[in-house]
Amino acid sequence: MTTKLNTWELDPAHSSANFSVKHMMIAKVHGGFKSVKGKMQFDRNDLAHSSIEATIDASSIDTREPKRDEHLKSADFFDVQKYPALTFKSKRIEEADEDRFKVAGDLTIRGVTREVVLDVESSLDEIKDPYGNVKIGASAATRIKRKDFGLNWNAALEAGGVLVGDDITINLDLQFMKKAI
Fold it and tell me: If you write DSSP's letter for every residue of 17-38 in order, what string do you get?
């Protein structure tokens, strides 16, 4: 079998990296990152040689609340001066069924690397946009514990509990453009 890995570049204008976390143990706060870059080497018939890499600019965090964003950029959380990027590098890609994949890889946040598994949904149908660019899209999700990545800051609430939950839900909506050979 001949491997035909295509190179795909992440289209940042049509992609998003978002998260949610419980605030005050009663409601979720949602946020995202405005600057996401990535590439993928992919052949559906040769997943063992396929790979995905992504880099997120930690300072591009946006929760629609400037004071909270500044706190998240500080040493209490992401420490963007010392750790300017969050990265993901796949280790293996497995087909779960026709339109679903499990992508295991190393996620690095704040200098701490842990393996995570992304649940990915994608039809992988190649679509040509009005400008002649070939694109594919995917949605991915996972949950992590923020303390596993050194994001330990918290504050106790007077009524009990804590200000920031430990479980982080990550949702990615991605569009890739085939790189010309």
Answer: EEEEEEETTTEEEEEEES-EEE
Six token digits for residue 109: 């946040």
Tell me the pTM: 0.91
Q: CA-to-CA distance for 42 and 69, rounded, in angstroms?
A: 35
CA nearest to 109, candidates 69, 63, 54: 54
Q: Residue 15: in which H helix or E strand, if any?
A: none
Q: Which long-range contacts (CB under 8 A, 24 or more apart) does 19-24 make?
A: 19/168, 19/169, 19/170, 19/171, 20/168, 20/169, 20/171, 21/146, 21/164, 21/165, 21/167, 21/168, 21/169, 22/164, 22/165, 22/167, 23/163, 23/164, 23/165, 24/157, 24/161, 24/163
- Angle (CA) 8 10 16, round 5°: 150
Per-residue pLDDT tens listing for the chain (181 residues): 455 788 999 999 999 999 999 888 889 999 999 999 999 998 888 888 899 999 999 999 999 999 999 999 999 999 999 999 999 999 999 999 888 999 999 999 999 999 999 999 997 788 999 999 999 999 999 999 999 999 989 889 888 888 888 999 999 999 999 987 5
> Which domains does the chain carry?
6-178 (2.40.128.110)
